[in-house]
Design goal:
Layout lengths: L1 H17 L27 E4 L4 E2 L2 E4 L4 E6 L9 E2 L12 E6 L4 E6 L7 E6 L1
Parallel strand pairs: 1-4, 3-8
Antiparallel strand pairs: 1-2, 4-6, 5-7, 7-8
Length: 124
Amino acid sequence: MKRALRLAVTATLAVLTACGGSDREGAGDAGDAGSDVGASERGATTVVLQDIAFEPEQLGVKAGETVTWRFEDRGIPHDVVADDGSFKSDLKDSGTFQHTFDEAGTFGYRCTVHPGMNGSVKVT
């Protein structure tokens, strides 16, 4: 079901772009003061928001590490909201958001715009 939805959204965006739809490249907001950073390298502590999904959905880090969420669904806004309310990004379609996990545990999060778009970070 997720794959079919991703393909439908991708096809729709391709058609809109071909028809002269809005080009939002570079139109991301500055967002969360102190939480936005420049582009970071994709690595073990990076989650990419693309095709209406978190990739990877589950991530493991050590206490004290910072996770970066990179918004790459141009034209499709998302946010990253902790289930326990411990962190929350602005709604955006580009840029990044970061959160440092200081305590061990498993922290679920979601995109409030897209039901079923969920992830978790396991901190050891």
